[in-house]
Amino acid sequence: MKTKILDGNEVAKFLKKNISEQISSLKNKNLIPGLAAILVGSNPASRVYIKNKEKVFLKHNCFTKTFKFSEDSSEKEIIDFIERLNSDDTYHGILVQLPLPKKFNTKKILHSVSPYKDVDGFHPLNSGLLIEGNPNFIPCTPKGILELLNYYNIKTTSKNIVIIGRSNIVGKPMFSLLSQNFEFGNATVTLCHSKTKNISSFTKKADILIVAVGVPNMVDAKMLKKDVDIIDVGINRVNDNTKKGYHLVGDVNFNTVMGIANSITPVPGGVGPLTITMLLHNTVKACRLFCTRGSIG
Fold it and tell me: What would you report as the CA-atom Rg of the chain, rounded to the nearest whole angstrom?
């Protein structure tokens, strides 16, 4: 059996056509979607993500600006700045780049973002609306995964879906979405985590497996049943002797599952491109909501 590669770049390209049409429509109303990004510290992966985000936004004629804070900045300084952005109509969305340095209260900072500009979907109001099935913003990575499943016609209804990882960014919202009564839900969902005993006993029953733990090659062929569809969210640096000094791998041992899995997202080039595309989508949506809501300042 040949394992199908689920190409995130292909899906992102398809989705951007519709997003571009929405941007053009807003431009006709003299509106340009704007995103403010908050970057604290000098995490290399965060800098790469911000740089890639800027490229995508500029290519699609959206405005974005990154505000950088040193690790020596105070929590109050960052929150006060976010509160000013909340009432600045130039920016329809606000992104706080994660992870924040350990000294900061991540939850407190994220909750200071207006729910109307919370394009990551992390504010308690938006989390609650997600559980109710009526979200303003679906977190970018889970939204991207839903779009990927839809593009490749991977049905979720009545499927056994196992998620490894219970973060607020991927695992928890993914669990909520897939268990809801709508076209891309209606699954029986199991959420595994670091305290789950014998994870293999769950993964071997999965029709669809979503892995988001940040552990290189954690899942291998021995943990799977034949014909499973795999969404590998992990992106991990593994040191090597190349000029660059490292290569990227997912949470799934890619080579061992080829020929066993029905399909799999590659790393890189799988979920990653869709996360940024959905950030663009959510920022455009925030701009549209601004049209109907008006300034919150």
Answer: 19
